[in-house]
Amino acid sequence: MNSDEIHFDLLRRLERKPQCSQRELSKEMGVSLGKINYCINKLIVKGLVKLKNFSNNKNKRNYYYLLTPKGVEKKKKIDFFFFKIKDG
Prior knowledge:
CATH class: Mainly Alpha
Number of strands: 2
Strand content: 5-15%
Oligomer: single chain
CATH topology: Arc Repressor Mutant, subunit A
Radius of gyration: 14 Å
Number of domains: 1
């Protein structure tokens, strides 16, 4: 799986389950935890994802990931591209 595929898969998964931990994502996707961390940080730098923490949770180490409007738009474009290829 190349970085673009990982980024797309991350955008899809984070949109469905924003509270998913990096460790869970790593196991689900079959990619190392370090690679997940690297890719999420790249998505944050690109402005596609925002990192927030649960303000009401006593454990402040729990985070969730929000797709920004730019991230949603990028995901839609990629979805369209993959569907177009699949339909041939």
